[in-house]
Amino acid sequence: MARTIFCEYLKQEAEGLDFQLYPGEIGKRIFDSISKPAWAEWIKKQTMLVNEKKLNMMNPEHRKQLETEMVSFLFEGKEVHIEGYVPVGEK
Fold this sequence. Notes:
Elements: E1 4-7, E2 12-15, H1 24-33, H2 36-53, H3 60-76
Antiparallel strand pairs: 1-2
Helix pairs in contact: 2-3
């Protein structure tokens, strides 16, 4: 059975993640209050960020940078700024 949570990103009830996908306290917070649709949205942004900034996930600095962006995006409603990327409808 799917878990329903109040998603901090969507500001509404939504289907929760099936398991904790990120380690530590932040991972627990994501599991408790970020929905599947919100996480999928973050994964798209993360992929663009990694590609655009040529981030190396073996580099702790790069991982920290990505984590900061993730927290800002999911919990603070901040849009991820990606050079040269213009969201559809904003051209």
